[in-house]
């Protein structure tokens, strides 16, 4: 069964690059893309993904605030989230993201191998936590 990945980012070039990188890694994934927090919430209402890749700087909500919103949902609180940001790269930004419930934090540009390794680790850890 393919994993479901929700990418929440308004940078179409980054989305294409990330999708291409996942294909190069032969990732068997159903990828859904949301370009705003509103689109992401609509997608999450329809389906619970295996993992969320989330930009911090969204056009309609700060990514950390978005993460706090989904962490309040019993359906979504255990879904692993990887933050990716071009602007927020300070250690304090990383700390705030991790305290909000992120599993990992990457700065753009990203190394697809590092992202893939973290993605696998978070998915394996999430599988181990299921009842």
Characterise the protein shown here:
The protein has about 130 residues and is α/β, with parallel strands linked by helices. The protein has one domain (about 5-125): Rossmann fold (3-Layer(aba) Sandwich), CATH 3.40.50. It contains five helices and five strands, in the order βαβαβαβαβα. It has helices at about 10-25, 35-45, 65-70, 90-100, 110-130; strands at about 5-10, 30-35, 50-55, 80-85, 105. The protein has a five-stranded parallel beta sheet, with helices on both faces.
Architecture, according to CATH? Answer: 3-Layer(aba) Sandwich
Q: Mind telling me the CATH class?
A: Alpha Beta
The number of strands is 5
Shape: globular
N to C succession of SSEs: EHEHEHEHEH
User: By CATH's scheme, which homologous superfamily applies?
Assistant: Response regulator
What is the percent of helical residues? 40-55%
Decide which structural class fits the backbone.
alpha/beta
- Whole-Å distance between the termini? 19 Å
Rg, Å, rounded: 13 Å
Largest sheet: 5 strands, parallel
Q: Which residue ranges are poorly predicted, with pLDDT under 50 across at least 5 consecutive positions?
A: none
Widest sheet, order of strands: 2-1-3-4-5
Question: With helices defined by DSSP (H or I, 4 residues minimum), what is the helix count?
Answer: 5
Strand content: 15-25%
Write down the CATH topology.
Rossmann fold
Average residue-wise pLDDT: 89
Number of separate domains = 1
């Amino acid at each position: 069964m393919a994993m479901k990945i929700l990418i929440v980012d308004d940078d179409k070039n980054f989305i294409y690059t990330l999708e291409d990188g996942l294909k190069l890694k032969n990732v068997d994934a159903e990828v859904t893309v949301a370009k705003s927090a509103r689109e992401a919430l609509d997608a999450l209402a329809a389906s619970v993904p295996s993992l969320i890749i989330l930009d911090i700087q969204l056009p309609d909500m700060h990514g950390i605030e978005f993460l706090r919103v989904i962490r309040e949902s019993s359906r979504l609180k255990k879904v692993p989230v990887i933050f990716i940001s071009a602007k927020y790269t300070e250690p304090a930004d990383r700390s705030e993201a991790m305290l909000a419930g992120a599993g990992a934090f990457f700065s753009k540009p990203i190394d697809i191998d590092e992202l893939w390794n973290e993605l696998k680790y978070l998915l394996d850890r999430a599988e181990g936590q299921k009842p």
